[in-house]
Amino acid sequence: MSFPYTLDEIDPDKLLQMRRDSLLYVRRNRLKIALAAQRLKDSPGVLAIARRTWFELKSHWGMYKV
Prior knowledge:
Blueprint: H1 12-28, H2 30-41, H3 46-61
């Protein structure tokens, strides 16, 4: 960010600068964003499925409070 913004910013000039900053951020991190998107699209592995199942069973049995 080129400037610290508030969440309730309404000044058109600052909003335009926020847009420019966000586009620059995406351009700089395009590869990381693409890799994260690919990772999210991949199916979970056997270990991840087993962990999720174990967590759900523990939660069902009352051994883990959600």
